[in-house]
Amino acid sequence: MTIEVRVPTLGESVTEATVATWFKKPGDAVAVDEMLCELETDKVTVEVPAPAAGVMGEIVAAEGETVGVDALLATIAAGEGAAPAPAAAAAEPAPNAAPAAGAGSVDVMVPTLGESVTEATVSTWFKQVGDAVAQDEMLCELETDKVSVEVPAPAAGVLSEIVAPEGTTVDATAKLAVISGAGAATAPAAAPVAAAAAPAAATAGKDVANAPSAEKAMAEAGLSADQVTGTGRDGRIMKEDVAKAVATATAPAPAPAPAPTAAPRAPVPADDAAREERVKMTRLRQTIAKRLKDSQNTAAMLTTYNEVDMTEVMALRSQYKDQFEKKHGVRLGFMSFFTKACCHALKEVPEVNAEIDGTDIVYKNFVHMGVAAGTPTGLVVPVIRDADSMSFAAIEKAIAEKGKRARDGKLSMAEMQGGTFTISNGGVYGSLMSSPILNPPQSGILGMHKIQDRPMAINGQVVIRPMMYLALSYDHRIVDGKGAVTFLVRVKEALEDPRRLLMDL
């Protein structure tokens, strides 16, 4: 028996829609009410459920086609290989697994890479063809523009094929490898179970499942369901709700400028060429290069300098560091003082904590502090959210935790997005003076440097003091010289007399 899947009623005055996404393909088993496809109108997104259980037949309206109300979308062969109800699922494959053509085999797919990341490079395979693998054992590592992503085995078995060898660039839906000898739970008939169970798992504790397109969008954006307000029936989260949450949490970056054309490399003598080593730039290094150049091309960047006497901060730290570590379980460093001082100064000079969006200035009434961190593979900037409302201990813990995750390559895309201001500490490498480059679309970045004893004139006397040069790079399109200098002076005053932070002066 063949059942037709038709376009449902789209709403008042809406007569046509566009087929946006098919969640099933011909030959797939489907369960009753399982989402088959998604239609987009000029007002809302409409999901089309399966009217009966069976096997997906012909797809009449492909993705991108415009269809009218009651138009034929697809057919279902009812009762043939019907999928079990989602509630009966006992096990499901991991998100990066998809059923392979043969029973007992599992495709290893590229996992979710994060918001706006569409491709990755296979950097390392930890297993070879023929190796036995355990479930959740690491198979390979992918390198994206920002982070390294480990790919675990979705099931136990034998690695029978590597589809994407090291160095291959793969998109977000690519197949990486095949594991054979996997359990029956990963057979093709279980695919609808996984598809139907995934939304239910993501919405545990809710009476209604979120839209599959919303689940996909949340995964790509690194958002959890409690960060999105659902406007659908009974609080159901729709695709549009995720888009609004992403737009609120992360301001759009400026459009990238065209990449400059590199000058051709001059001829190299044969004996010199034999002693050279050519290594392909990592995706992270390519992204760093592009973003920094985009920043120079877009912003009217200027840097102002000052110096700070670190005597009082060092004395306070020396006096309380043991008690601080004993109580809070984390060392008291300089970064919490600088973070607090910057948050204090940003309240007085809000344009340094703002950004330009077209012809608008967007002022942020919060501080998401980016803390630049060097890693073996390049520079990353994890973000400490709402740093202005955090204590010294909370700041130190957050910086330590994110710094470790950065060095281990474990940072997610969400942890590196949404920053409103950045601190870069070149002093840990011995830098005495530098001009940091803005992290777009932010309008300010503070550069810290090496603490060095220098002779200073204090009350008519020459004394030796631990001094540090500070550099504030800012976007002159939005921040005037007066505001930049005022910000840097307020940071200097707060560090030279930390009691000002306590008194909010």
UniProtKB/TrEMBL annotation:
PROSITE patterns: BIOTINYL_LIPOYL, PSBD. Residues 248-274 are annotated as: Disordered. Residues 262-271 have a biased composition (Low complexity). Keywords: Acyltransferase, Lipoyl, Transferase, Tricarboxylic acid cycle. This is Dihydrolipoyllysine-residue succinyltransferase component of 2-oxoglutarate dehydrogenase complex. Forms a 24-polypeptide structural core with octahedral symmetry. Part of the 2-oxoglutarate dehydrogenase (OGDH) complex composed of E1 (2-oxoglutarate dehydrogenase), E2 (dihydrolipoamide succinyltransferase) and E3 (dihydrolipoamide dehydrogenase); the complex contains multiple copies of the three enzymatic components (E1, E2 and E3). Pathway: Amino-acid degradation; L-lysine degradation via saccharopine pathway; glutaryl-CoA from L-lysine: step 6/6. GO terms for cellular component: cytosol; oxoglutarate dehydrogenase complex. E2 component of the 2-oxoglutarate dehydrogenase (OGDH) complex which catalyzes the second step in the conversion of 2-oxoglutarate to succinyl-CoA and CO(2). InterPro entries: 2-oxoacid_dehydrogenase, 2-oxoacid_DH_actylTfrase, Biotin_lipoyl, CAT-like_dom_sf, E3-bd_dom_sf, PSBD, Single_hybrid_motif, SucB. Its cofactor is (R)-lipoate.
